Sequence to fold (50 residues):
Amino acid sequence: MNAKLLFLQIEIFFERLQRGEYDHPLYLAMALENLASQAWDEVDQIYPDL
Fold:
C-alpha cells in the first residue's frame, strides 16, 4: 500500500465518521484498528529496520 492510498482511506473514514456511520463503539473501534494496522504496515515498509 502506498501513502496516498492510506490518506485516501483516512479521508473516507473521516467522512463516514461525520455522517454518523459509526453509531456503535464497536464499529468505530474496528475502523480505527484497521486504519492503525495499515499505518503500521506503511511504517514497516518505510523503516524496515525498526
